[in-house]
Design a protein that fits this description.
Elements: H1 2-16, E1 62-63, E2 71-72, H2 75-82, E3 94-100, H3 111-118, E4 122-130, H4 136-147, E5 155-157, E6 160-165, E7 170-177, E8 180-188, H5 193-205, E9 208-209
Antiparallel strand pairs: 1-9, 2-3, 3-4, 4-8, 5-6, 6-7, 7-8
């Protein structure tokens, strides 16, 4: 009986290893002839992509000297002032910032409020035009006729080039820095147009990267 049990155990052991001559244990093998199935190496963990990515809003990272008494110009205010320019600005102009000498009414205020505001308003709207550092006089000549009526007569003042359009109601100013070329559109409806125009050009001259 014990012999039968012993032979049965041997048979089971051989069956577990595949049995037969194909599993003859090679010399020096201490696994008993039963080798574990190979284990696939785990897939390497995904490494983070360290490639620097360009900031699509980098052109917005500029600042300007504050203008005494002037405030941020709201979207509704910009829209109102731009009614005095050509209806469709060049598509490549990307809005950056805007200021105004008088706070614009709220979007839900009456037409009379807007009419009263328009009589005293002067605003400056900053756009990014190109990543290239364009020649400033050339930039004014290119963009001014697309923004307002008239023929540009380009002048330079400090670090900017500019022209007055529509009898001085619209100023188009070009400046540049390491982020590219910028255009300031000044809309002057106030009676003291010359003073407001000078203020807008000074503001444009102060714009620099953060």
């Amino acid at each position: 009986m014990y012999r039968t049990i012993f032979l049965l155990l041997i048979a089971l052991a051989m069956a577990g290893c595949g049995g037969g001559a194909v599993n003859n244990q090679p010399a020096g093998d201490t696994t008993g002839g039963c080798k574990p199935a190979p284990v696939n190496d785990a897939a390497p963990a995904n490494k983070p992509d360290d490639t620097p990515k360009e900031d699509p809003y980098l052109y917005q990272k500029v600042k300007a000297a504050p203008v005494g008494g002037w405030v941020v110009l709201s979207k509704d205010g910009r829209s109102e002032l731009l009614k005095h320019a050509k209806p469709d600005l060049p598509k490549e102009l990307k809005y950056v910032a805007a200021i105004c000498n008088v706070k614009a009414p709220g979007g839900t205020e009456s037409e009379s409020h807007w009419n009263e505001w328009s009589k005293q308003a002067a605003g400056a709207i900053l756009y990014h035009a190109s990543k290239d550092q364009m020649d400033l006089a050339a930039a004014v000549k290119e963009y001014a006729p697309k923004i307002a009526a008239g023929v540009p007569e380009v002048k330079t003042e400090g670090e900017v080039a500019w022209t007055a359009m529509q009898g001085g109601e619209v100023q188009v100013i070009a400046l540049k820095n390491k982020l590219g070329t910028y255009i300031v559109v000044g809309i002057i409806l106030a009676a003291d147009a010359d003073e407001q125009a000078n203020t807008i050009r000074q503001w444009a001259s102060s714009i620099e990267t953060e």
